[in-house]
Amino acid sequence: MAEQIKPHLWFTLYTLLKLGASKTDIKLSTTELAEKSDSSQQSASRHLRILEEMGLIKREVDTEGSKIKITNKGLRELEMVFEELKWHIEGREAEAITIKGVVVSGLFEGAYYISKEGYRSQIEEKLDFDPYPGTLNVRIMPDDMEKRKRIERRSGILLEGFKEEHRAYGSARCYHVIINGEIDGALIVAERSIHDDNILEIIAPVYLRRQLKIADGDPVTLEFVPLRRSAS
Fold first, then answer.
1. Residue 177 burial (CB < 10 Å; 0-12/13-18/19+)?
2. Is the pTM of this model over 0.70?
3. Which residues, 6 or more positions from 218, have their beta carbon under 8 angstroms from its beta carbon?
4. Does residue 229 have a pLDDT over 60?
């Protein structure tokens, strides 16, 4: 997952969106982009190069300019900014998303990953709690899949990937959630997940099954409330 896009790069990406680059390749020179975005030709050229390196656009360059199209990754970045703007403008109540599901058994890998210091220390720093070494797995209904997509369009809190003992561990994003109206935790979405999209992995500072007296098959209510970005 990419680092959060910088404001000046986001504005260039937004300019490309307005010019139609989300739907088709557009022909555009750096001089034309500079005029559209009220920047210098050098800045426009640099922004395009960085956006391409980040995988947010694809382009083909020739002597007449560039053919540019925003990638799916670039569109997700724009959607995340949109969701965050809605949060700041409309407030908590307008953006709370509630999903109901049932508790299911996982593959028992949550404890292994959450116990890794590379993840645990970031959760402590960025989410302000020491996570219980394990995840609560919740299966959601097909009707709620669109809600999951809306949640993941938010910027969330980035847990950066790291290397340990010659093994690479991927990045993940966390989204604040209130479980059964009682306990604050987070949905954790790994860059490379082994779970189906209908399974949500929840972390919290406590053992949720014991604290909430829940077991496989029991219903769970998850209320997702955006947090203002921490150090992500």
1. buried
2. no
3. 102, 103
4. no
Handedness of CA 188, 191, 194, 195 (dihedral sign): positive
The total number of structural domains in the chain stands at 2
102 and 217 assigned to the same domain:
yes
Q: Whole-angstrom Cα distance, residue 118 to residue 159? A: 9
Both 124 and 72 in one domain: the answer is no
Q: What angle do CA 149, 153, 158 make, to 5 degrees?
A: 120
Identify the CATH number of the domain in which residue 52 sits.
1.10.10.10
pLDDT at 155: 74
Using the structure block, give the residue that is written with the tokens 């709370």: 96
